[in-house]
Amino acid sequence: MPKFISLIGYPVKHSISPYFQQAALDYYHLDIRYEAWEISPEMLEVTVAKLREPQNLGANVTVPYKEAVLPLLDQVDNLAGLIGAVNTILKRNGKLWGYNTDAYGFIEALKQHGNFEPEGKKVAILGAGGAARAASFALVQNKVRFLLIVNRTLERAQTLADNLREYISQAGWQAEVAILPWQGLTSSQVFDDCQLIVNCTTIGMNHSSYEGQSPLGVELIPKGILVYDLVYNPYITPLLKLAEQASANILSGLPMLVYQGAASFELWTGRKAPIDIMFNKAQEVLVGSKL
Known about the structure:
Layout: E1 3-9, H1 17-27, E2 32-38, H2 44-50, E3 56-61, E4 75-76, H3 78-83, E5 88-92, E6 95-99, H4 102-112, E7 122-126, H5 130-141, E8 146-151, H6 154-171, E9 176-181, E10 196-199, E11 226-229, H7 238-245, E12 249-251, H8 254-269, H9 275-287
Parallel strand pairs: 1-2, 1-3, 4-6, 7-8, 7-10, 8-9, 10-11, 11-12
Antiparallel strand pairs: 3-5, 5-6
């Protein structure tokens, strides 16, 4: 009897996780199937409860449920609790444990593929949801000097900023956190002295209501800055195309996706993730060629 790992989200049509996770499972000849479960918000509680059935090993959690899933779990890892978002669920001894591998994936991709060292830098984050929380805490842990959070709902940005300031204070670090409403994005001067802009929204994601759109116009993107879009489908998003027009450097969300997925794979299976196989399959599915 096969076991199952699921991807829980809405929508999930854009996701390539089932392809590269299945490739990793097949590499070890494991009788495990990775399935995408697209569910409506009212089905979230029932769906998480289903993970307790014997055939299910756990799940990935994607938008918009990374925060909503927390109260449905038995235990939450310290990092996931700090971030306030879960993207990986592991069933252990009949209990559901929540983890956050997004923070690891975010930083690993930024350093390895973006050649960017966060310490002492000034960074702007677009969004304040689960992905933004993981990215923000990862950046603070890597000692950024200044973090600007831009979000449509100012209250969510304020909550995230307050959480970050408390963490920074307890750690005894020197870092400043500021917030800005989306309508405050009026010129590229907003990002003066920033070395990095990270899009943590779903704007530009295929199979979403924001498909084909960019969170920033070309006139808002400073020359020479690194623009990191956590949206990975399409591989080169509308934002990244505009960033290239503005003579900025770009980083796709694909490496983060694979790195966070590799960390999840190791939690579920206890085996070392075959990272090259996962990268090659992800690249093949997304752009039709291997790395």
